[in-house]
Amino acid sequence: MAATGTNVHVGQIRSIVGDANAREATENDAIDGVAPHFVAEPESVEDLSRLMSFASGEGLAIAPRGAGTKLSIGNPPSELDLVVGTANLGGIIEYVPGDQVVRVEAGISLEDLQERLESEDQMLGLDPPEKRAGATVGGIVATNSSGPRRLRYGTVRDLIIGITVVLPDGTVAKAGSKVVKNVAGYDLSKLFTGSVGSAGVIAQANFRLHPLPEAARTLAVEPGGTREAGEAAQAVMHSQAEPSAMELHWSADGGTLTVLLEGIEAGVSAQSETVTELLSSFGEVRTLTSEEADALGPQEPPQVGGDEVVLKVSAYPAALSEVLDLVLGAAQRGGLWPRITGHAGSGVLFAGLSGGAEEALVGAVEEVRGAVLRGYPGGSVVVHEAPLAVKQRVEAWGPAGDKGPLIRRVKERFDPGGTMNPGRFIGGL
To answer: How far apart are CA 332 and CA 133, in angstroms?
Structure first.
């Protein structure tokens, strides 16, 4: 059966990727209310290349998809014909523990990869929250998603050393190497990190690894207010301690600051004493169990109706308390319930706002974004999740600013037909 608006039949796609790997889409495949016609999941880079070449020739609008844990990021697509999934590209291509480098297919889940690496006492220093939901490596790279340990190990851009992508016309492009010291073509890896599927499909990625820490300890304190939270975080950052993560968990009723210390046992013990002494002036310092550390989070919002908007708010770390006040103030004025987590040492907060009508949610987004852009050069506010009605009224990424023309030129270079995730990226590209 041919899809409405196109002469393509699902049988044509099946002839490329195999009968079991292509189907007509259902309503569950829609992205922000826009339903595709087909879903295809190639089993090899070669099949992916042929599929992309065919789709390009037919002018099909494409959305890459891993586990679907980050499909909420970006604007609603302006059109969508084909979802290209990586579920069948889930292997480890090469792993030599002695090199501390791994090359994997994009569809492998981060959780599965970490389990394999742990068997050799190694890890990939990425821990985004969607890992538990089965997030794939390709999706994590495409969204430049990181977690608490970014404070010590960096983000995707710091850990990726090579990439293989399939461009819209089917061209297979590679950059980088399996060896850390040889990173020729690293710019291509950076280009596709955070590209949200707007330039091609990530097929493989190479990463440098780290040894698993011998010991770990999480300390927690409940600061008396937002000012104290910021001061506590800065005290740790300006000390001799080298935390792997420093996380803030906050709601309308106050919150908790946690500090994760990792390394050899003697080093962790010594740093724990230092951090405990620093934080003791802000409240009682506790050592959390691993279960407590995993479960820690802001209070759940009350069930008062409405949907949640989740904002990623970025500013410089020293402005933590000020940005926290901005978000809490906007929530209070809009009658919204805030739940905030964030990387206190990196200046990144994730603010969930719920419990209000569409107008209040839109108003809060605009208020927080305006204040951050005015007050903190280089800061940004990105809408990570929102009801469709809110997304239709606010730009998910915020203003492109001076980088807008450059982003447009890159898009035109890699995707001249405009078929990759049209409308979803910065500036509606």
So the answer is: 31
